Amino acid sequence: MDDPFHLNPALDVDRLAADYPTARRIQIRDIFTPPTAERIAQCLEQDVPWAFAWFDGEPKYHRAEQFAALDDAARAALTRRLYEVATTGFQYAYNTYPMLDAYLQKWQQVPLLDRLLEFINSPPMLELVRRVTGHDDIIKGDAQATCYGPGQF
């Protein structure tokens, strides 16, 4: 099976490593080669059964099939509750695909995202993150796919 993921060889890792100590958080633009990025984007647009995530005193989500099974009244009640909480406290609501949960629980719904999570935990990716952050003790990465829809926050 071919390896669908390739880091962009044009990344300026030294510049990223120089920026990180001051910012403490950076976005690595164009981390993948264009074909890799296009393959991931196509998967996200076409293949992901989006779950719904929200906060209810703790992080929660309904898998896609659970959320689809809610009737209109149940969805409306959930939406009302989320907006009510958001007016006075911390809240979020968005579409998600919890890649680590899916991988560990062997959902096998989106094989490309399973492979992406493996790539995130591969020596080339972990070495890149260690070099950029200066943290040689990084041993693993986590990931989730997120898609904000109308009215989500």
Structural description of this entry:
Strand 1 (51-55) and strand 2 (59-62) form a beta hairpin. The protein has a four-stranded antiparallel beta sheet with strand order 2-1-3-4. With 153 residues, the protein is α+β, with helices and mostly antiparallel strands. The mean pLDDT is 96. The chain has helices spanning 13-23, 34-46, 64-69, 72-88, 99-104, 111-120, 123-133; strands spanning 51-55, 59-62, 93-97, 145-147. 12% of the residues are buried.
Helical segment count: 7
Distance between the termini: 38 Å
- Class based on secondary structure composition and strand pairing: alpha+beta
Question: What is the arithmetic mean of pLDDT?
Answer: 96
Instruction: Tell me what portion of residues adopts beta-strand conformation.
Output: 5-15%
Give the overall silhouette. globular
In short:
This protein is α+β, with helices and mostly antiparallel strands and 153 residues long. The protein is 48% helix and 11% strand. Strands 2-1-3-4 form a four-stranded antiparallel beta sheet.
Question: Secondary structure elements and their pairing?
Answer:
Elements: H1 13-23, H2 34-46, E1 51-55, E2 59-62, H3 64-69, H4 72-88, E3 93-97, H5 99-104, H6 111-120, H7 123-133, E4 145-147
Antiparallel strand pairs: 1-2, 1-3, 3-4
Helix pairs in contact: 1-7
List the defining traits of the structure above.
alpha+beta; 153 residues
